[in-house]
Design goal:
Blueprint lengths: L2 H7 L11 E8 L2 E8 L7 E6 L3 E6 L10 H10 L2 E7 L3 H13 L3 E5 L11 H8 L4 E10 L7 H18 L3 E6 L2 H10 L8 E3 L6 H9 L3 E4 L9 H9 L5 E3 L21 H12 L3 H16 L2
Parallel strand pairs: 4-5, 5-6, 6-7, 7-8, 8-9, 9-10, 10-11
Antiparallel strand pairs: 1-2, 2-3
Helix pairs in contact: 9-10
C-alpha cells in the first residue's frame, strides 16, 4: 500500500510514552520456555514464563522498507520468541511477488497475495492467479474496501474485491480482508458472495464493532486481533474481542505498524505476537496457554500451514 495511505490507515489514537520490553525463548531440556519481559531494557525483569507455546503471526509486511536488510534477523528473533510461522502480505502485483520471494527464503514464512483497495485500479487477475499458485502462497489478500479520502471509487473497489473473492474460491484459498470505514458494504459484498467463501478467511486488523464481528463469524470468517487491541482507549475493539469466540480469533502484528502497548510508537515486528496473545488472555480472563493453543490451531487450519 502507498506510504501516504499507510500513515493515514494506521494513525489511530494518541501515542503515549511507554517502557521498552522484550520476549524471548529458551530451552529447558526439550521443552521450550517463553519468557515475557517488561522493563527499561531487553535483559531485565522476567515477568512471566509459559512453556511449550507455538505462535503464528498471520499478517505481517516483512518486505516493508522498515525491515530492509534485516529480514533474517526479524524472522530469527520471532522464532526465538516462539513465533513458528509468519504470513507476509502483498498489496499489489509487485509487493505480492516480493512477498512470495521472501516466503521462499524461509521455511516458516508464507505469503498472501492480492490487491489492496488503494491499488484496485492496477488489478491484473491473470498475473495474480499465476503468483497465487506458488506453493508458499496460503491466501488471497490483503483485499477489501476502504472508504477514506483519496481512495478509488467505491464501485471499482467492490468490483475488484468480488473478483478476488472468486479467484480465491477457484484456487481453494482463504481470503485476508482489509476493511476501513466500509464495514457495511464489506459485509454486503461477502453475503452476496457467500458461496465463494468455502475456504474461509479473516478480517485482518479488525477494528469494527462486536455486532459486526458476529455477522462476519456467521459467514464462517475469522477475526484477526493485533496491537490495536492493547491500546488503552480501544474500548470498541476490546468488546468485540471479548465477545468473539476464541475459536474464531487469529493473532497478527501488521508489522511494522501498530506495535502493541507497551511498545506503541516503536517499530512492530513478529516477535511481539506474545504480547498480543497475553493481552487477549487478559481480556478474556483465560490463560495465555489457551489463547496460544487455540489461535495457533485456528491459523494452521485456515491457512493449511
Amino acid at each position: 500500500m502507498g506510504d501516504k495511505n499507510i500513515k493515514d490507515t494506521h494513525k489511530m489514537l494518541s501515542d503515549e510514552a511507554a517502557k521498552m520490553g522484550s520476549v524471548r525463548m529458551r530451552f529447558q531440556g526439550e521443552e521450550m520456555i517463553t519468557e515475557f519481559f517488561e522493563a527499561n531494557n531487553t535483559e531485565d525483569m522476567c515477568r512471566q514464563a509459559t512453556s511449550g507455546l507455538v505462535l503464528v503471526d498471520t499478517h505481517a509486511h516483512l518486505t516493508d522498507k522498515a525491515f530492509e536488510g534485516e529480514e533474517e534477523i526479524i524472522v530469527g528473533r520471532a522464532a526465538e520468541c516462539g513465533v513458528a510461522f509468519i504470513i507476509t502480505s502483498g498489496y499489489n502485483l509487485s509487493s505480492s511477488q516480493t512477498a512470495v520471494a521472501c516466503a521462499e527464503k524461509f521455511d516458516n514464512v508464507y505469503a498472501s497475495v492480492g490487491f489492496y483497495p488503494e491499488n484496485c485500479m492496477e488489478f491484473d487477475c491473470e498475473a495474480l492467479k499465476e503468483i497465487a499458485q506458488n506453493e508458499k502462497v496460503v491466501a488471497i489478500g490483503e483485499i477489501g474496501l476502504q472508504y477514506t479520502e483519496g481512495m478509488p471509487p467505491k464501485e471499482e473497489q467492490i468490483e475488484v474485491f468480488e473478483k478476488q473473492i472468486k479467484l480465491a474460491h477457484e484456487l481453494n484459498l482463504p481470503i485476508v480482508i482489509h476493511c476501513r470505514e466500509a464495514y457495511g458494504d464489506c459485509l454486503e459484498v461477502l453475503k452476496r458472495n457467500q458461496q465463494f467463501l468455502k475456504a474461509g478467511g479473516t478480517l485482518h486488523c479488525y477494528c469494527g464493532s462486536s455486532e459486526m464481528a458476529k455477522e462476519f463469524i456467521r459467514l464462517g470468517l475469522h477475526i484477526s486481533v493485533g496491537g490495536v487491541s492493547t491500546f488503552k482507549n480501544a474500548d470498541k475493539i476490546k468488546k468485540a474481542v471479548i465477545d468473539c469466540p476464541l475459536e474464531r480469533i487469529l493473532l497478527e502484528t501488521d508489522c511494522p505498524y501498530l506495535a502493541p502497548h507497551p511498545f506503541r510508537g516503536k517499530r512492530n515486528e513478529p516477535s511481539l505476537i506474545p504480547t498480543i496473545a497475553e493481552n487477549l488472555a487478559t481480556l478474556k480472563g483465560i490463560s495465555v496457554e489457551e489463547v496460544v493453543s487455540v489461535t495457533t490451531q485456528n491459523a494452521r487450519r485456515l491457512f493449511k500451514i
